[in-house]
């Protein structure tokens, strides 16, 4: 049983429900096609992480996006 965990930043740029549904569908199809995994037992979890709780290069995503 494959388990895939996708972590994305939330906030104003968070994916829509439709985008999340498409990610789940496409990741499941990919594992089925490439690794011959059973789609009925494939688990895909999407975690949205607040931008203040995600850091890159010593700065939160919130700060990094303000710099741009």
UniProtKB/TrEMBL annotation:
It comes from the Bacteria. Gene3D superfamilies: Macrophage Migration Inhibitory Factor (3.30.429.10). The active site is at 2 (proton acceptor). Residues 2-63 form the 4-oxalocrotonate tautomerase-like domain. It is an enzyme of class 5 (isomerase). NCBIfam families: taut. This is Tautomerase. It comes from Chelonobacter oris.
């Amino acid at each position: 049983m494959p388990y895939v965990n996708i972590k994305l930043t939330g906030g104003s740029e968070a994916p829509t429900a439709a985008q999340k549904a498409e990610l789940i569908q496409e990741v499941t199809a990919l594992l089925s096609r490439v690794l011959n995994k059973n789609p009925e037992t494939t688990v895909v979890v999407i975690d949205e992480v607040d931008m203040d709780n995600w850091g890159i290069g010593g700065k939160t995503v919130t700060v990094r996006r303000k710099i741009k």
